[in-house]
Write a structure and sequence with these properties.
0% strand; globular; mainly alpha; single chain; 301 residues
């Protein structure tokens, strides 16, 4: 028995070490560049969004709003008070919806980290998150034209934690917060990836999520994203392994949309601002968009 356990540990460590070497550099890059943007660019990004208010862009305003949402380094609980302050100043709900939706799905740190999945997956992740934000904004614009979509009562602007007068210390403190927030999930993702490599045949992954089982695979990927997605840092190693084992790019895209959109902490924040009925609409929109995006990507590729 001891020999079996020792052999299995050696196998596990072999896969763990390979996965860690492959992906650790991207995680570190995401942490560093994400902190640089958060410390030195966050205020400029939000001022850029505020500057849209005076422009007569109409429905086209969802385009820059969605792009700025992706560029914003704040988590959802940080984004909502910012959106509330914009709403008080008269920012249109459709632009706010585009900004918040894309901000939920992607941020600079996760975008840099997603480079580990390869250029195609990186481009698909960026494009699908941007389009999802823009479409969400358009839906709010045309279905809630004459009524308010959000309820921001009770939200105030968050205190700025990046306030140390020493720029180097400000950056290091932000970086340490990012490491603490994602480091454990990153290691869990690498462990799960190693276990998948050791014990789940690639043929099984190809059957569940591959091209030959397209509809079911997309539904599975979108569904698995709901309970499994705790942190972007933990899912990148898994996605890298799944894609290498035969997961279709469309299934990966569906997972990358439903995962962050239904992350428990994000759902709590969204529920507060939307109320039950619009919260259900948000969930239905997210799942439908993920499935349609996955189908389109698999059809094109």
């Amino acid at each position: 028995m001891a020999e079996i356990l020792k052999r299995e540990f050696i196998y596990f460590w072999y896969y763990f070490d390979i996965q860690l070497r492959q992906i650790a550099g991207y995680w570190i890059l995401g942490m560093v560049l994400g902190s640089v943007i958060s410390v030195f660019g966050k205020e400029k990004i939000h001022r850029l969004f505020a500057a849209l208010q005076g422009k007569k862009l109409g429905a086209l305003g969802v385009i820059p709003a969605s792009l700025i949402g992706i560029a914003s380094p704040l988590c959802m609980y940080g984004t909502i008070p910012i959106a509330a302050s914009f709403s008080e100043k008269g920012m249109a709900d459709d632009w706010l919806a585009a900004f918040m939706m894309s901000s939920i799905l992607l941020n600079p740190q996760l975008l840099f980290y997603s480079m580990a999945l390869g250029p195609a997956a990186l481009l698909i992740r960026f494009a699908s998150c941007f389009v999802c934000g823009a479409v969400a904004g358009l839906c709010v614009r045309y279905f809630y034209r004459h009524k308010s979509f959000f309820n921001f009562s009770g939200f105030t602007a968050p205190a700025n934690r990046d306030a140390d007068p020493n720029l180097a210390l400000r950056f290091l403190k932000n970086l340490w917060r990012n490491v603490k927030a994602t480091g454990l999930y990153f290691l869990i993702g690498v462990v799960l990836s190693a276990l998948f490599q050791r014990y789940v045949p690639s043929e099984a992954m190809a059957f569940l999520f591959g091209e030959k089982n397209r509809g079911f695979g997309l539904l599975m990927a979108a569904t698995v994203g709901v309970p499994l997605y705790m942190c972007g840092g933990g899912t990148i190693p898994l996605l890298q392994q799944w894609l290498g084992s035969g997961m279709s790019m469309g299934s990966a895209a569906a997972f990358m949309i439903t995962g962050p959109a239904t992350k428990i902490t994000n759902l709590g924040a969204v529920k507060i601002t939307l109320g039950l009925r619009r919260f259900v609409l948000y969930l239905v929109f997210t799942i439908l968009f993920a499935l349609l995006t996955g189908l389109l990507i698999d059809a094109l590729l």
